[in-house]
Amino acid sequence: MLTGGRHDVRERTGAIGSRRRAAPIAALAAGLAVACGPVPEPLDAAPPSDPAPVALGAPDPGAREPAGAPPGASRGGVRIYPETLLELVPGDPRDAVRLGDVALCQPCHVEVYDAWRASVHAASSFDNPWYRQAFDAFRAEQGAEASRFCSGCHDPVMLLAGAVDVPIEATDPRAQLGVTCMVCHGAVEVRADGNASYTLSTSPVPIPDPANREEVAVHVAALTPAPLRTAALCGTCHRGFLGPDMHNPHFLGGVDDLTPWARSAFAGSRASRLDAPVEEATCQGCHMAQVPASDRDFATTDGHIATHRVPGAHTALAAARGDDAQREAIAARLADVARVDVAALRSGGRSTRPADGARLAPGAIELDVVVRNLGVGHHLPGGTRDLQDTWLEVEVRDADGALVAEAGTRHAQTPDETAHRLFAAPVDDEAEVQLLHHVQHFRAMVFDRTIAPRDAEVVRYAFELAPGVAQPLSVDVRLRHRRHARAMYDAACEATRSERGRAFLATAVTLGRAPIDACVPQPIVELASARVWLGEGASSRAPEGGATAPAFARLFDHALARIGDVSEHLDDARPSLAAALRAATTDRERARVHLQSARLEARQGRLAAALAAAGRAERLAGEGPAIHRVRGDAYAQVWRWEDAAAAYRRAAEGAPGDDGRWTDLARALGSAGRDAEALLAADVGLRLTPQSGELLRTRYLALDAAGADDAELARAAYLARRPPDRLSELQLRSGVRDPACARERMPMHVHALRPAR
Ligand code: HEC
Ligand code: HEC
Ligand code: HEC
Ligand code: HEC
Ligand code: HEC
To answer: CB neighbours of 53 closer than 8 A, spacing ≥ 6?
Structure first.
């Protein structure tokens, strides 16, 4: 098959070159339709003459949607189990062997294969001790059938083989395959639900004679199905939820990087705020960048190929396998994604913003540390937000470098109650925070301290300054990350050392792979840092890191973070807004401040002031969805639903891929009594987020008000996804159980720095 030299092939198949150039444009169009536009790309839009067995034919789009069912249901695939949304192309065999045949691709795609091997996707299955301990616990309690739920995303080959319905043997090589080539390259249709909502083609892959142009074209077409380059493909597994189908008592959202991405400037939604320019990128754009590659891979073009390492933040896996190249890829991905700063200081009744050079009076001092997510296309940290260990360290030192007070600095070694952590806290029926991702016990998220794309959070610290401490004081802030918090590390280490664990390691060795030893110490990566100087003599010392950002950015970030807070603290944003306005150097920057002022006034129910500030922003920056959205919020706050709906409509039209804007619009229209229009808006939103309880509620209310026959079905759909009834009870109880939990749950809590002894 491998006739001729590889360079020859490339020269002789010049036609491929033009095809390759065309592909991204087609993919972009598909991306807009599937991921950014309101209406998913219809599957039957593929050319009818497509030689590859990838089209599902042209099912009647509405055929399987019963009246009253929300839009966006499957379009004709065959669902194989109730516990997962994975489907097969009708008529295709349930061919797990083909799905798992990565060796078929390896000879011609060496670069891709090697990178994929090192990736988390190739380690998402039972050889992964973090996953295995959680899976085994889930299965022991919920039963084998329920565990098909996990396997749709983590072990699709095992699922198709029926191998998760029987005990999982450590010697089974399929249990170490993970997300294989043909899971992504065979996903011919995707739906927005999540929980493995993709439709697989398992018909034979046309393998080309690389010298035969036509065969190569057929191969390329077959392996680049329409969803491949869209975020929607990734979203099928990077959006998840729990519910009765997986034997959980009620609906609860799970991993979801797709929704925050779709609402962000990275996805082209400019509805969250007026921002500095942001380069748009899909999941692939950030996680599968073009990297240098050798011509040993047929798909290397101009010395580059899309990396299949998909670097994110899983430094623990790279370390556990001793894979330095993967660690470097992840380190590069983690560079410059966040900024930290000491944005404000209060001492002796005086507030200084930014904190640099603040006059210090002995007694109580409060510091506002700001963390801004600059470059993560979803929450920081993302993925399984319950497992991430991302925390802040703060150190205050005197002029001689002696420690005065600190927080979070012991977290790396032992539990440190002064640490502020960026994570989400799921609790069980007893309101106990769950640390091992045992999702069968998840009942509610009592708080989520991760930071949305381009958003900022403020963390307040307090300490007592004794008289006579040598000034200037330095304050150092570091944002540090490791993949797993301590309890998870311990559980996975134990799962590595157990008899079963050792059997998995032995199989990995037999297969010629680097075994995953979860007892290897986890690397810690510093995501961002800052140093400021305070008090007398501060002006002769230079700030560092995030504190060297322009004054405008520092003040703006502080205001942004405060306005996102609970209402009691909103007014504290005003001085930062005023200072940011003075520091602004361009009209755009001024507009950004005015819009935040409008947001603040809107939240406080001052309609006229909000509209005036929004008008100022609009005159400087031109109209846009972020401005319309704030106007909508201002009207909604005072129950002027007709006006709110008009503004929200413009926001939604300007950011059609952002489900939150359709949610706002649907709610306002419903409240204004315009049920037919509310229904239409809800349906657009539901195509983007089919499992949204809020949209399903609006949809039901609109149908009910119209006296529609299918209102009952819509009601059932809503009730199945409404938020847990016990949320506030569990929040309260978790606080009683654990004071640290009560503190973290409060949006503007104060961490007392630990005084040096
Ligand atoms: C006999 C060699 C051979 C085998 C085996 C093979 N491929 Fe290819 N593949 C090629 C050639 C040649 C190209 C065209 C490269 C080019 O010119 O860009 C290609 C291109 C591709 C592309 C690039 C499509 C694009 O965007 O241009 C994908 C994806 C792909 N192959 C996936 C696979 C997968 C998955 C397998 C295993 C199921 C596989 N290939 C097996 C030879 C092979
Ligand atoms: C998680 C999903 C996923 C998995 C798993 C996966 N791929 Fe891909 N692959 C993609 C996406 C997405 C692209 C397109 C990337 C782009 O152009 O941005 C791609 C591109 C490619 C290309 C073309 C590369 C280029 O730069 O033109 C080849 C070849 C390929 N994949 C082969 C494979 C093989 C072989 C495997 C298994 C060893 C594999 N893929 C596993 C998603 C995946
Ligand atoms: C079939 C399901 C599936 C699909 C499709 C999928 N992923 Fe994943 N992905 C996973 C699972 C499962 C994990 C986590 C594995 C683990 O840690 O056990 C993961 C992990 C990751 C990570 C974490 C890597 C790290 O170093 O932390 C990134 C990034 C990622 N995927 C990106 C993507 C992108 C980009 C796409 C689309 C091209 C995609 N995924 C498509 C299932 C999927
Ligand atoms: C603008 C760049 C960007 C885009 C777009 C982006 N990501 Fe990420 N992603 C990052 C960075 C940076 C990290 C590492 C920081 C972190 O942990 O949040 C990351 C981390 C991750 C992780 C690992 C989480 C962890 O901390 O272990 C997953 C999974 C992931 N991304 C999936 C996705 C998916 C799915 C999409 C598309 C919906 C996507 N990403 C879009 C930049 C991006
Ligand atoms: C909707 C798809 C999906 C389903 C269903 C799913 N997961 Fe995951 N899981 C993911 C993704 C995506 C990640 C990676 C996120 C990241 O990198 O932070 C992940 C990560 C994990 C991790 C962390 C692994 C590591 O390497 O650190 C564990 C543990 C886990 N899942 C357990 C489970 C169990 C057990 C089930 C079934 C009860 C399950 N998952 C169901 C998508 C899914």
So the answer is: 89, 201, 203, 204, 222
